[in-house]
Amino acid sequence: MSNLHAADPLVLYGTSFPSRLLLGTARYPSPKVLESAVRAAEPAMLTVSLRRQAAGHNEIGGQAFWDLLGELKVPFLPNTAGCHSMDEVYTTAMMAREVFGTEWIKLELIGDDYTLQPDTLGLVSAADKLLREGFKVLPYCTEDLVVCRRLIDVGCEAVMPWAAPIGTGKGPTNPYALRLLRERVQVPILVDAGIGVPSHACQVMEWGCDGVLLNTAVAQARDPMALAGAFSAAITAGRAAYLGGAMAERESAEASTPVVGTPFWHLDGG
Amino acid sequence: MQITINQAPFELPEGATVEDALSRFGAKPPFAVALNLEFVHRQRYSETALKAKDILEIVQPVAGG
After folding, report:
1. Which of A95, A72, A92, A74 is nearest to A82 (CA)?
2. Cβ distance of A81 and B32 shorter than 8 Å
């Protein structure tokens, strides 16, 4: 852990985290690769989920997954992935709290199955209900300023706007809105979904976002461990650039080497 | 009586509770339960009676994003 991490923790609901990277646990080629990626990334939290016990899915799950989570010793962030209604969200969150023993919840309320775009109309009510039940809600949302404001109004102490639709790896598709959001809200912004490469993560951190939640970009890389480390470094670099006050962009060239005293200059008398 | 567990039909004796259903289903910890889309706290399994056509969901931890 660098000194930057220790001096500048990510603070969510009063809890400090030494890392600004939140990592998903899905879509890795094997549990072993997941474990290696987690150790390389050293994430603040690991997202996890719940599915039917006898559903016969191919995801990493069950007792073996539970044992691995215990060994990794990273706080859990259960999600409500796949929920389409407030009732589904609420019941899933309650089950997650019991199974994972945590009040953290990544609130996902899907409004469109094709884009997996969050249902921003229902999101605020869902967040409100979970907050009243004592959950620490991290809402997956769009970069819409007013939606984020409403989430904050009901008590969300962080928002998680997408960069692009889940799993696309397109990077921030609406930089203007994301940067505007950063200017207009005070709570931590964790960019969730749509990050593809480390430069995307670095970019949003340079804009002043407070953290990044990744899954596919690491899990589906040819070498997930390498990308886990690369994303971790990119997020640290972007944060340092933001805190350090990166230079303002200019339209015209300006020599970096001093012009005064340039040899041979104006020798022709011009 | 017949109920549904994780989308499949499941036969149980009349008066069976959630605890009975979990035992007969062979649920393996860690898991959590919802009955007709409502969360059932683990302390209430033995006192929660089932009726025909109930829908029970038994979920376990899986990888997620």
Report:
1. A92
2. no
**Do residues B4 and B10 make contact, with C-beta atoms less than 8 angstroms apart?**
yes
CA distances from A268 to A235, A262, A263, B10 (A): 51, 14, 12, 98
Catalytic site residue A73? no
Point out the catalytic residue in the list A73, A106, A129, A170: A106
A78 in contact with chain B, both atoms CB, cutoff 8 A: yes
* ipTM above 0.90 for this complex: yes
Q: Answer yes or no: do B63 and A95 touch at CB < 8 A.
A: no
Contact in structure between A36 and A224 (CB atoms under 8 Å): yes
Q: Is the pLDDT of residue A1 over 60?
A: no
Q: What is the pLDDT of residue A5?
A: 64
DSSP A226: H
* Dihedral angle, C-alpha B43, B45, B47, B53, nearest 10 °: 150
| Helix segments in A73-197, DSSP class H | 86-100, 120-132, 145-153, 175-184
A167 within 8 A of A179, measured Cβ to Cβ: no
Per-residue confidence (pLDDT) for residue A55, from 0 to 100? 45
Backbone angles phi, psi at A239, to 5 degrees: -65, -45
CA torsion sign for A233, A236, A238, A244 is: negative
A33 close contact with B: CB closer than 8 A = no
Contact A69 B61 (CB under 8 A): yes
Question: What is the DSSP secondary-structure string of B34-51?
Answer: EETTEEE-GGGTTT-B--
User: What are the distances in angstroms from CA B62 to CA A33, A61, A68, A76?
Assistant: 16, 4, 11, 12
pTM score, two decimals? 0.91
CB spacing of B62 vs A87 below 8 angstroms: no
Location of structure tokens 């023993």: A101
A51–chain B Cβ distance below 8 A for any pair: yes
